[in-house]
Amino acid sequence: MAEEFQKWVLMVTAQTPTNIAVIKYWGKRDENLILAINDSISLTLDPTHLCTTTTVAVSPAFNQDRMWLNGKEISLSGGRYQNCLREIRARASDVEDKNRGIKIAKKDWENLHVHIASYNNFPTAAGLASSAAGFACLVYSLAKLMNVQEDNGKLSAIARQGSGSACRSLYGGFVKWVMGKEENGSDSIAVPLVDEKHWDELVIIISVVCSRQKETSSTSGMRETVETSALIEHRAKEVVPKRIIQMEEAIQKRDFATFTRLTCADSNQFHAVCLDTSPPIFYMNDTSHRIISCVEKWNRSEATPQVAYTFDAGPNAVLIARNRTSAALLLQRLLFYFPPNSETDLNSYVIGDKSILKDVG
Ligand code: DP6
Questions:
Q1: Number of helices and strands (H, E) in the chain?
Q2: CA-to-CA dists, residue 351 to 34, 45, 158, 255, 331, angstroms
Q3: ipTM value of the model?
Q4: Is 283 a pocket residue for ligand 1 (Cβ < 6 Å)?
Q5: Atom 12 of ligand 1, nearest CA residue
Q6: Do 139 and 162 contact (CB within 8 A), yes or no?
């Protein structure tokens, strides 16, 4: 390669928000392709608060694929990264930057290496779905860099192979991950239900109970649940399919009472199957349980519920208030019951739900 050609670097930066499931994905039927045992529905969060920013670069000067996460180099040898890189490379097309005289032909991508730098603006692996934002952003930015001509649905099936929940971060608003039937996973994709404007009075508050890395990762936790829980099959086959239908309807109608009932019940059932796993998995702690009691009591004392709660694979609460007034009251209550500088001091972030993938450069 001519020396001139060796000098260039082509870069793309993208930002992707995380998503929070209101009907949870828990359990795989195929570990390699990451195929779920049930459909799930999530809400994509506002990217200004909880998001991953990823810059991907390609240059003939790079002699291997490399990645840095929050400034620290990580290995790309794992199957999940390799699957995403392979799938994106296979769909790369010609790229031309006329101003700089750079031309990459489709076939060149096989021999070019990428460098990836990714930052989360929230605690990694503390049950705040960092892998969801991370893999969605990785796939999206690589697809932009390599001029992949696929829609977000197809990209979601690639992001899914990085982390199941990542497929839902390719869209804003409420998103459903359809588990699909095909063995090769081609129909296991994310589909947008309603965009971020549909129900924009909702306010999301994340209460960080603990920002430490969780002890049992979602991946190994759900594997153990599928292998040992007697309840998981009932959940996946009987309970979730009905809830998915009801949840879709509640979202379409902006029916907050039904939305809250389903969201809280599904979070509680997910943690119940974790408890039914051998050995049992405890993602929530005493503070999480106190938050649940506080919200349940408040909802029952009102004519209609004010707040839905949901907890992923960690102790942190995601609280969804019906509107700004309820959100303000909720924050007051949280400050009262969990005072600052006390043992159970919560760090609560208010987050909207206007979320969309963003190219920032
Ligand atoms: C509790 O998507 O992190 O957040 O597919 O193994 O990477 P892998 O798991 P991951 O699991 C998320 C589980 C959850 C529920 C959800 O987001 O639906």
A1: 10, 18
A2: 29, 7, 28, 20, 12
A3: 0.99
A4: no
A5: 165
A6: yes
CA of 215 from ligand 1 middle (Å) equals 15
For residue 25, the ligand 1 atom closest to its alpha carbon is 18
DSSP of 137-186, one letter per residue?
Answer: HHHHHHHHHTT----HHHHHHHHTTT-GGGGGGGSSSEEEE---S-TT-T
Task: Give this prediction's pTM.
Answer: 0.93
Q: Taking the CA atoms of 122, 41, 204 and 144 in sequence, report the sign of the dihedral they define.
A: positive
Q: Is the pLDDT of residue 240 over 90?
A: yes
Q: Residue 51, SS3? A: strand
Q: Establish whether residue 36 lines the binding site of ligand 1, counting it when its CB lies within 6 angstroms of any ligand atom.
A: no
Strand ranges of the sheet holding 40-44, from the earlier edge strand across to the other edge: 19-23, 40-44, 174-177, 190-194
- Interval between CA 102 and ligand 1 midpoint (Å): 39
Asked whether the beta carbons of 346 and 338 are under 8 A apart, the reply is: yes
| Cα angle: 65, vertex 69, 75; to 5 degrees | 45
Three-state DSSP class for 89? helix
Ligand 1: residue of 20, 22, 24, 25 to mutate (most ligand atoms within 8 A of CB) is 25
CA of 201 to the centre of ligand 1 (A): 26
Cβ neighbours of residue 250 under 8 Å, at least 6 residues apart? 256, 258, 259, 262
Q: Confirm or reject: Cβ of 313 under 6 Å from ligand 1.
A: yes
The pairing of beta strand 35-36 with beta strand 347-351: unpaired
Does residue 278 have a pLDDT over 50? yes
